[in-house]
Amino acid sequence: MKDIKEYIESGILELYVAGKLSEQENQEVHEMMYEHPEIKKEVEEIEKAILLLTASVAPGTVSFNNILNHLNSNDKRVIPLKTRYNWVTYTGWAASILLAAGLVYNYQSKVDLQGELELTERENRILEIKFEDSQEALVQTQNTLDAIRSKDVITIPLGGQGNFADSYAKVYWNKEDNSIYIDGSGLPETPTGKVWQIWSLTLNPLTPTSLGTIDSFNDDEDKLFKFENEYSSEAFGITLEPTGGSESPTMDQLHTLGVVNSNP
Amino acid sequence: MTSLDNLIIRFKNKEVDAFEKLYEMYSDSIYGVIMNIVRNEEMATELLQDSFLKAWNNAETYNSKKGRFFTWMLNIARNSAIDKTRSKAFKQSRKNLDSSLFVDIIPDNENLDNKTDAIGIKNYVKALGETCKQLIELLYFKGFTHKEAAEELGNPIGTIKTRNRNCIKQLRDMVL
Description:
The structure holds 2 protein chains of 2 kinds. Chain A is α+β, with helices and mostly antiparallel strands. Helices cover 49% and strands 21% of the residues of chain A.
């Protein structure tokens, strides 16, 4: 147990009267007061001194009548409130709780729906993009198809050569607009560092002229490639060349070759 | 059971005569504390009435385990008065609050209906040291915690409690 004298001398009782101790400290002082009459007496004396001191600052005394007038005008209304409205209070609280629960439920549903809505919207956007891509691809394919079906186009099949007997290709040549389409679907994928190079050939004497290289062969889906061809080609050949192409065809890498029929 | 405990029980039971007794015991002191905060008699009178009505309407919330009845009233009154000083109307009417201490507003003339011997108290209080006056101002009139008072006065927290104890002791020796 605490030394009572020391407890009193600590100054805690003066702060207790000032009203600025923690709730726990207040309870402790209260207990000490009831256990030890000398502590209670001390608190009362401190309070008395403070009462006198603070009262001395008052400009005068205000009569209780002021308060009484207020009480008389308010009392009759204030007191019945407590008993009369009890069930109203309880049902009010019950209604509030139900309302709150309802609001929480509604809010949760809203959040869930919003999530679903966002997901659906995202899926829609992805589908739209896919649809546009397909549409574009379809238009391109249609254009290509129109181009090779044109009455001005002649078809030259290119057969596999030597070790590459399994390879084949086709050239669609539109002499009107000097363009050719290569259908390379019968060619194998190119190894790294190699590309297909297209040659226009005249036969007598045998003179190859490069029409260009297919740089994106492996990535292309329909393997249809368009080239300009302003030459009077008598044959077309495709060789495998190092990336960037060669000046003249590497003959042992000649995969396919086809002669243009003068009378298709 | 002391008569004060009994009064408080009856007060909590909403017995007006008990309320009146308590009012007579404490209203001058509460009035003084409010007056020192707002420094305006009309306003202080109104706040005094508001504070006691607030106490009456919330009588059931008072618990003697949490502090003295006077202390409870003191807190209600200080809070009301400090709230008032923060109001726009108050700030407009009084731009600068007097920085003087409670000691400076103790009425000089003997007030016939004031139960306290104000003149006598004033002389005693004047005899207190400056630190004591400031400490009493902060702790009892303004409602500072002892930590806040220590900061305000630039004193170590550890010495505030005993210093205040000595001040109140001097006061008790003089007035009781």
